[in-house]
Design a protein that fits this description.
By secondary structure, the protein is α/β, with parallel strands linked by helices. It folds into 2 domains: about 140 residues, Rossmann fold, CATH 3.40.50; about 260 residues, Alpha-Beta Barrel (TIM Barrel), CATH 3.20.20.70. Helices cover about 35% and strands about 20% of the residues. The strands form 4 sheets. The protein has a 6-stranded parallel beta sheet with strand order 2-1-3-4-5-6, with helices on both faces.
């Protein structure tokens, strides 16, 4: 039995191959460990007329998709059905998890949540002739039991990118934890990973880093964890063991988990940049979004990071409920005052699974558009995102006002060359 796992194009990203597809690579390595014949196919950056030439024949096709990738996953699935009507087509990933009861009938099976165990159970049922539409499994407790992502199944440029960390330096991403304890109204992460954070052991993370160095001669890394600084003792141990490797790395974390001793340990271990999801500076907006931070905490975290010597990248959002006509002025004023090394402005998109999508009336908003191809949030001044209409009615600002405020901030970021690699 042959299984082909497929990564669809990601046209909503400026650089489609910037981040390696860790989720599906984990599933691939897990299934290979169980003895299955797995092939990975990366369709990112590939034109539609070349998809079928890239995809080999298989008994089972597994496609992963975020919400903006979902329409393309449907297209891929229909092309596969033309190739072989008898093949089984499985959809997994964030969109399948959050919209499992609202998917195109072209998909024969649906994997909800973490995919490793569910895909294994699906394959076992297939071998037995058992027909079951949905697969969901308990979250994996022992992350060390998972083999490292199957990077070797993809070409070099699918897993190594020179725009991920220090521009021009080859880099890749890893993840040391799964889950986030917070429940921001604009985020759907909990639908996939849950709110309890699970940790790989520091030794396990170090082994993966060493394997990447040996195989790819790469010394730059991005940690994709939501809140890598949450457990101080775990982080201190990880940093102590990273230090001798002489790598350079960047990480995201939460404002309230940015104590100076934590940031010092990271800097000493080769961390050169810390990324903060600020979103907005208004206490009102932060409260409505259930961000669980205060503006004062934002100032403290940035001050600590600068004093340690870390570069700072700040992520803001335009379109969050509660934002008013001063949003652009306040964000620009803050940037001018704090002088971060990089700034990113995303268009808020109520992705399925987040509370604003599930309960828009609670936020005095109304979702107008369910064409998921329009659920774009990250292109900024690239492509035509800056001209796109917002896909919902905002509680305070009109569509034209939102577009104007977005353009004002984006042009400021561009003018001052603050748009670091995302």
């Amino acid at each position: 039995m042959k299984i082909v796992l497929i990564i669809p194009p990601s046209p909503s990203l400026g650089d489609q191959k910037r981040n390696p597809p860790l989720g599906i690579m984990y599933i691939a390595s897990f299934l290979m460990k169980q003895g299955y014949n797995i092939e990975l196919v990366d369709l990112r950056d590939l034109h539609e007329d070349k998809w079928t030439n890239k995809i080999p024949c298989a008994d089972i096709y597994g496609i992963t998709a975020t919400t903006p990738e979902y329409p393309l996953a449907v297209k891929i699935a229909y092309k596969l059905k033309v190739m072989d009507k008898k093949s089984l087509i499985v959809l997994g990933g964030f969109h399948a998890t959050t919209q499992s009861n609202n998917l195109d009938t072209v998909f024969d099976r649906v994997v909800i949540g973490e995919g490793e165990v569910s895909m294994l159970n699906l394959l076992k049922d297939y071998e037995k002739g058992v027909k079951k539409e949905y697969y969901v499994s308990p979250l994996i407790e022992d992350l060390d039991s998972l083999p490292f992502p199957a990077r070797h199944l993809l070409p070099f440029d699918s897993v190594i990118n020179t725009n991920l960390c220090v521009k021009g330096k080859p880099a890749t991403a890893i993840i040391a934890t799964r889950g986030c304890p917070y429940n921001c109204a604009f985020c759907a992460s909990n639908a996939m990973w849950g709110r309890r954070v699970r940790y790989r052991s520091p030794d396990n993370v170090i082994s993966e880093i060493k394997e990447i160095i040996e195989r790819y001669n790469v010394y730059h890394f991005r940690f994709h964890d939501d809140t890598i600084t949450l457990n101080k003792n775990w982080l201190f141990e990880l940093c102590t063991k990273i230090e001798p490797l002489n790598i350079r790395w960047r990480a995201n974390t939460w404002i309230n988990a940015s104590q100076k001793d934590v940031l010092e340990a990271m800097y000493k271990a080769g961390c050169y940049e810390i990324d903060y999801g600020i979103e907005d500076l208004s206490e009102k907006v932060l409260r409505i979004s259930n961000k669980k931070v205060k503006a004062e905490g934002i100032y403290t975290a940035i001050k600590n990071a600068k004093e340690v010597g870390l570069k700072i990248r700040l992520f803001f959002m335009i379109g969050l409920p509660g934002q008013d006509r001063d949003v652009a002025k306040n964000i620009i004023k803050f940037i001018e005052k704090k002088r971060p090394d990089g700034v990113d402005l995303s268009t808020f998109v109520p992705f399925p699974g987040c509370d604003i999508y599930n309960n828009p009336s609670k936020y005095n908003m109304r979702i107008l558009n369910t064409n998921f191809s329009d659920y774009v949030m990250t292109l900024g001044l690239y492509g035509d995102e800056a001209k796109k209409d917002f896909i919902y009615t905002h509680d305070t600002l009109t569509n034209e006002e939102l577009k104007q405020k977005r353009l004002e901030i984006l042009e400021y970021i561009k003018a001052y060359n603050l748009s670091l690699n995302k």
